């Protein structure tokens, strides 16, 4: 190893305690070009800093020390912006007085299936911070006598995403799971109208419905009308509500939006890429074909299903089906209204899908130009979490399991002829989407905190 590498390694190791304290004690998330700097992995830090050789790691350490010494709490900070600040101490002081309140919004996960468990993993990951919110409860139907033990096991062990690197314990006496030391109440209910969250000590909570059972405003309003719930997020496309793709149209959210949808995994994967192309070239029309991993909605063996083809054996067939993702994009990018069609093929892989974007652009382009535009967006603070960029010659679907980005453009597969472009976008339809949902949750939690402080100021 070179002395330069060993020096960088030593500096990264020294940052782990600082990042740990910032997350653990102050709920401050530190980001570098949109990527979270985690306190659990020196290798992860080295990989992050390797993309930014212009950074002076000694200076990074000093900045982290200053942030830790400040009163900043329950917020996210962008490392590059902090480094560029001429008077960091004054800036931190001003941000502390205007932004940080120390309050955390409780989060309730209604449903604990594939997405619910991954949301819990992401929120409770050692080294990761979710400013402004904390997981308080999970609502499920009781499935068996040892239900708590089963739920804990499903959270800890996952055939797709591996063993959860955290400590999960069962507290039968208090009907709770202990996840990395945090108590998460497990509430058993078969109907949302049965639950009084305030009776469990939960107030002003953000509820995330992972069941997909209710997708319209009236159905989800049952959650909102329960004691202790302030806001609701749906992890599926929704009707009569805003459908939000974080990084694309999350700025549209207002204080009046008490129920919002996080759209679908496919919409989250393609909308950021489409937003870049629409902005740079303009899109006349297009078709989106998603080759999608099979899901629990399908039958493992041929049987009756409300969707005819989804009733056929998922593990041995390519199954033609439908997707509303292409049309749903226009809810995030209104200028694409009526311009995109879409269809889907479910295939025998357990996770990771790929969307094929066949687009007619308003102006001619080249492969190099389009890839350069996408790569630039993938390195921007605004879209780093939403757009990934892969130029790996031997990439296959399993390489993208666990990707926290909404979608990853396979640059070597991009095709362009005049104004006709075809892009291939990989996405972890489980974890990548879950990370998008958590980003939306953070925004809602922080917005609620700001609104609460504004109300306090007005009352004073």
From TrEMBL:
PROSITE patterns documented for this protein: GAPDH
Leading EC class: oxidoreductase
Record-level GO BP terms: glucose metabolic process
Family matches, as Gene3D superfamilies: Dihydrodipicolinate Reductase, domain 2, NAD(P)-binding Rossmann-like Domain
Domain Glyceraldehyde 3-phosphate dehydrogenase NAD(P) binding: 105-265
Keywords, in A-Z order: Oxidoreductase
EC number: 1.2.1.-
Pfam families referenced in this protein's UniProt entry, alphabetically: Gp_dh_C, Gp_dh_N
GO MF entries: NAD binding; NADP binding; oxidoreductase activity, acting on the aldehyde or oxo group of donors, NAD or NADP as acceptor
SUPFAM superfamilies from the UniProt entry: Glyceraldehyde-3-phosphate dehydrogenase-like, C-terminal domain, NAD(P)-binding Rossmann-fold domains
Top-level taxonomic group: Bacteria
Family (UniProt): Belongs to the glyceraldehyde-3-phosphate dehydrogenase family.
UniProt-recorded name of the protein: Glyceraldehyde-3-phosphate dehydrogenase
Organism: Marinomonas algarum
């Amino acid at each position: 190893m070179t002395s330069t590498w060993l020096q960088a390694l030593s500096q990264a190791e020294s940052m782990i305690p600082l990042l740990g304290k910032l997350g653990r004690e102050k709920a401050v998330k530190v980001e570098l070009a949109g990527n979270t700097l985690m306190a659990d992995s020196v290798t992860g830090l080295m990989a992050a800093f390797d993309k930014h050789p212009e950074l002076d790691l000694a200076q990074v350490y000093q900045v982290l020390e200053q942030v830790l010494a400040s009163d900043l709490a329950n917020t996210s900070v962008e490392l590059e912006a902090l480094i560029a600040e001429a008077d960091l101490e004054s800036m931190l002081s001003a941000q502390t007085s205007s932004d940080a309140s120390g309050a955390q919004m409780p989060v309730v996960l209604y449903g604990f299936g594939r997405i619910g468990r991954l949301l819990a993993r992401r929120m409770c990951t050692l080294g990761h911070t979710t400013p402004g919110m904390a997981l308080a409860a999970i609502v499920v139907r009781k499935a068996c006598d040892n239900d708590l033990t089963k739920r804990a096991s499903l959270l800890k062990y996952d055939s797709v995403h591996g063993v959860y690197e955290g400590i999960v314990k069962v507290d039968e006496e208090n009907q709770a799971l202990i996840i990395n030391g945090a108590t998460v109440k497990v509430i058993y209910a078969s109907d949302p109208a049965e639950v009084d969250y305030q009776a469990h000590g939960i107030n002003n909570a953000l509820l995330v419905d992972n069941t997909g059972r209710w997708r319209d405003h009236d159905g989800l309003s049952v959650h909102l009308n329960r004691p202790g719930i302030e806001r609701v997020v749906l992890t599926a496309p929704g009707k009569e509500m805003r459908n939000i793709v974080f990084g694309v149209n999350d700025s549209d959210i207002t204080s009046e939006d008490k129920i919002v949808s996080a759209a679908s995994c496919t919409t989250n994967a393609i909308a950021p890429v489409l937003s870049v192309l629409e902005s740079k070239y303009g899109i006349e029309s297009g078709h989106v074909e998603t080759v999608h991993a099979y899901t629990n909605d399908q039958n493992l063996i041929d049987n009756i299903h409300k969707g005819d083809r989804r009733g056929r054996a998922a593990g041995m067939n390519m199954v033609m089906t439908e997707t509303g993702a292409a049309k749903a994009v226009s809810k995030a990018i209104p200028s694409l209204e009526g311009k995109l069609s879409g269809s889907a093929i479910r295939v025998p892989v357990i996770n990771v899908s790929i969307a094929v974007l066949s687009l007619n652009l308003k102006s001619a382009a080249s492969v190099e130009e389009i890839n350069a535009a996408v790569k630039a967006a993938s390195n921007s603070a605004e879209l780093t979490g939403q757009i990934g960029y892969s130029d790996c010659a031997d990439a296959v679907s399993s390489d993208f399991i666990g990707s926290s980005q909404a979608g990853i453009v396979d640059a070597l597969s991009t095709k362009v002829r005049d104004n006709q472009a075809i892009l291939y976008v990989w996405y972890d339809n489980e974890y990548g989407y879950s990370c998008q949902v958590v980003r939306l949750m953070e925004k809602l939690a922080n917005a609620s905190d700001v609104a609460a402080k504004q109300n306090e100021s007005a009352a004073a």
